Amino acid sequence: MKTAKRYLPVFLSLVMAAPLFTGCNNGLDEYPSDAPIPAPSDKFTTTVQFVSSLDGNAFGSDYTAFNDYLTGLGDEKPWMTVLDRADNGNLPGALTGAFDATRWTAFAFNKIENRTSYQGSMLYFNSCITGATGRPSGEGCYVTRVKTALNGVRTDKDENGEVTGQTDVSFDVDFLTARFETAEQLSAFGGKNGVLRAFYAESMPVLMIGTVKNDLLQQLKSAAESASGSYAFKVYEVAAGSQYTLFLLTEERFWGLMEPVNAQPLAGNVKVYNIGVMW
Questions:
Q1: Which pLDDT value is given to residue 160?
Q2: Exposure on the CB side of residue 17, measured as CA atoms within 13 A
Q3: At residue 225, what are phi and psi to the nearest 5 degrees?
Q4: DSSP string, 44-74
Q5: Beta carbons within 10 angstroms of residue 210's beta carbon
Q6: DSSP string, 233-270
Q7: I need a surface site. Which of 73, 108, 254, 273 has the fewest CB within 10 A?
């Protein structure tokens, strides 16, 4: 763990040093329980794509199908695309699509063993990121937070529910991601003094998308509940694979999951999960 802590700032600095890809009162513990905060509405939406086999394996060395898909999105590209387990050492492959699709990138470390052995996801954004933080959550797990501008839409409807117009919207958010593999990692994540609560105290509300071992999903829900105060963290089960479950975690008053979640095959066992998020 000491080795991992020593290398994390180095890795983050390397990622954020490339100007082409990475740019440019939290003292309150919680909101009052009677704060007039509206529930999430499908009038305000954005999309996060999560590309994964959900089987615990690295993405692979051939990025052709992924890059073709990324560039083929054109102007319809979502706010963010997360390429799970992009840790096979083929950095040029992972960045080719970013060049061709004009996307900003950052690498979110999930696990670091040493300088050459690590795991994580490549994040593709429409805007530059303005900060990145990694926190250990137990042994062998890091929760990564990046600050960037969210791109979404406001959809206006008439009294009959017919769409009358759409307007692009954008505002700064903190986005979290992680992969949980052990009960000990989740114990460190939840609770009043855990990692989730610490991130929330620094910047609320929380918007997190990641993966958890299938048999630990209920413990993740319990960990989120144990970190709640007068607000309530909620874990949405987005999709289940052979080994891992894709989840959305948020404070339920601020963000919500739009269902059903569209999943389309990419290559082999890899699928693209289009996660609709509303606020």
A1: 84
A2: 6
A3: -65, -40
A4: EEEEEEEEE-SSS----S--HHHHHHHHHTG
A5: 24
A6: EEEEEEEE-SSEEEEEEEETTT-EEEEEEEEEEEETTE
A7: 73
Q: From CA 250, how far away is CA 60, in angstroms rounded?
A: 30
Question: 255 near 40, Cβ under 8 Å?
Answer: yes
Question: 254 with 40: CB under 8 angstroms?
Answer: yes
Least confident of 38-42, 75-79, 264-268: 38-42
The pLDDT tens digits of the residues spanning 145-183 come to: 999 999 999 999 888 888 999 999 999 999 999 999 999
Say if residues 185 and 141 touch (Cβ distance below 8 Å). Answer: yes
User: d(Cα 178, Cα 85) in Å, to the nearest integer?
Assistant: 11
Residues near 35 by beta carbon (within 8 Å), at least 6 away in sequence: none
DSSP-H helix ranges across the chain: 2-17, 64-72, 91-101, 183-189, 195-202, 217-227
CA 211/CA 240 separation, integer angstroms: 9
Identify the residue whose tokens are 């102007």: 75
Residue type, 51: V
CA-nearest of 57, 63, 56 to 267 is: 63
The residue assigned the tokens 């492959």 is 93
With cut-offs at 50, 70 and 90, classify the pLDDT of residue 37: low
User: Would you state the pLDDT for residue 115?
Assistant: 77
Residue 262, pLDDT above cutoff 70? yes
Q: Which residues of 8-33 are buried (b: 16+ CB within 10 A; e: fewer)?
A: beebbeebbeeeebbeeeeeeeeeee
Compute the mean pLDDT over every residue in the chain, rounded to the nearest whole number. Answer: 87
Q: Can you tell me the distance from the alpha carbon of 108 to that of 101, in angstroms, rounded to the nearest whole number?
A: 20
- Identify residue 216 by its one-letter amino acid code: L
